[in-house]
Amino acid sequence: MKHCTVLGVVALSVALVVGCTVVKEEKAGTTSAPQGKSGGVEITMYTWTEAAEEEANEALLDEFRKANPDISVELQNAAGSKEPMAKLQGAIAAQVAPDLVSIHGAYFVPLASKGALLPLDDYLAKSQDLSVSDFNERLLNLCRHKGKLYSLPRYTSVYALFYNKALFDAAGVPYPDKQEPWDWNAYLQTARKLTRDTNGDGTTDQWGCFIDFWEARLYPWFWQNGGDIFSRDRSKCTLDSPEDIEAVKFVADLLQVHRVTPQSQPKERNEGREEFSSGRIGMYMTGPWDIQALSEATQSQGLQWGVAPLPMKKRRATMLGTENYAICTQSKHPDAAWKLFEFLMSAASQQFMAEKLEKMPSRLSVINGPYVKGDTGQGRRVFAEALSYGVDPPNVPDWAEIRELYQNELDNIWIGRKSAAQGCRDAARRINQYRAAHKP
Predict the structure, then answer these.
(1) pLDDT at 36
(2) Residue 306 lies in a domain
(3) Res 165: pLDDT
């Protein structure tokens, strides 16, 4: 496994002030055997990262090891998102939960509502390093359940518009402005100009945009049009509202009417990133989590790309998401887990992950300081400014149960089996019926 540069490790060693012991990770999906002084505390950390982030975590945990040889950490990792979260839920149900866990933001409320996570308020009140004042209040709201704080965001996630500079240049189309977003019509007209049959064989082989027609990728379109997935109190699904129907129709029409996007698989996967990396897609909505892969495409294929705000209609909106660290209530050593938690949430750790992998920090002192000031030209300012108009995702306790009802109707719309209006109405009806039948 590759290691970070000596300079990076030295800088990290100087900056970090707390630590633990951990053994080196093995391949994704494996578990490393704990090491440390005999008689010390052993805890387990669970993550869901790809190889590059595993390597960065290994560098961090090496520093943690040096400072705390009496704490041994067994690192478990599984790549992906849905599958690792299903494994975590299974471990919790089987009473073999890890001590410290990394949680996909969509799974936070379901886990917290079931008592699986430890409240952190008392630990935070005593912490010399972590303070809630160093986090965006709206991010903290995504980590609270019934007034208590059960997690903190290890990263911030926002969607932005990534664009292929070479395709824009070849079409003579100006790049999108980094300050003032396009409206939906400007986005559509640009996509039309970028969609081409480049070899004259009668088949489109360059597309103006790529649309991931699933779950969270549709949220910003709802919000930009004044709609939402649920009512303000989250008690009723509102996908049947005129605003939501209009938004879904606009996006579906990009494929079915305007033909400026290829037919994508209506599932959560990396198809869009791979297509954009290939150089044949003009615009793609994603976030800082994909920068590492796109940077590799730049090195291997010469892909030149930029980042701009998402288009808007009635208002500016993007999704304000998180990846959270939390401690499980089943932990036998919560104090040791908290020490690891503090280390991983330190400003130095967040800065290290930003520099190595372009991960967007969650601490304001890092976002507004070294993150933005050290802008690498890969959209850091666009991401940071998006925090001001980001919208909370529909984190509800029963999301795991109703998400399939939502996605099934999106699939029907995307393949043309149902109109946007019919699919949205059916989704709202089925979700509301399910919730009515399963009230606690």
Answers:
(1) 46
(2) yes
(3) 97
> Based on the domain organization, do 92 and 208 belong to the same domain?
no
Closest CA to 378 of 298, 274, 269: 298
- Helix 184-194 to helix 242-256 angle (10° resolution) is 10
- SS3 (DSSP) at 46: strand
Residues constituting the chain: 440
Query: Does residue 1 belong to any structural domain of this protein?
Result: no
* Residue 416 buriedness (CB in 10 A; 0-12 / 13-18 / 19+): exposed
Residues 6+ away with beta carbon under 8 Å from 393: 105, 106, 142, 216, 219, 319, 320, 321
Are 240 and 335 contained in the same domain?
no
In single-letter form, the type of residue at position 254 comes to L
Residue-wise pLDDT tens digits, 353-404: 999 999 999 999 999 999 999 877 789 999 999 999 999 898 888 888 899 9
Closest CA to 52 of 357, 391, 396: 357
Residues 128-160 as b or e (16 or more Cβ within 10 Å = b): eebeeebbbeebbebbbbeeebbbbbbbbbbbb
Stretch 90-115: mean pLDDT: 93
DSSP designation for 176: P
Same domain, 217 and 352: no
Let me know whether 407 and 383 are in one domain.
no
**CA dist., res. 72 & res. 212, Å (int):** 41
Domain identity same for 124 and 190: no
> Which pLDDT score is estimated for 266?
62
Distance separating alpha carbons of residues 341 and 136, to the nearest angstrom: 19
Query: What DSSP state is assigned to residue 206?
Result: B
Q: In what order do the strands lie in the sheet with 207-210?
A: 207-210, 281-286, 160-164, 305-308
Report residue 269's pLDDT band, with 50, 70 and 90 as the boundaries. Answer: low
Span 154-200, pLDDT tens digits: 999 899 999 999 999 999 999 999 989 999 999 999 999 999 999 99
Q: What pTM value is reported for the model? A: 0.87
Phi, psi of 150 (to 5 degrees): -110, -5
Say whether both 313 and 325 belong to one domain. Answer: no
In a domain, 387, yes or no: yes
CATH code at 419? 3.40.190.10
Give the residue numbers spanning the domain of 116.
6-157+320-391
Same domain, yes or no: 148 and 202: no
Q: Strand order of the sheet with strand 71-77? A: 21-22, 71-77, 41-47, 100-104, 321-327, 152-157
Q: How many helices (H) and strands (E) does the chain have?
A: 19, 14
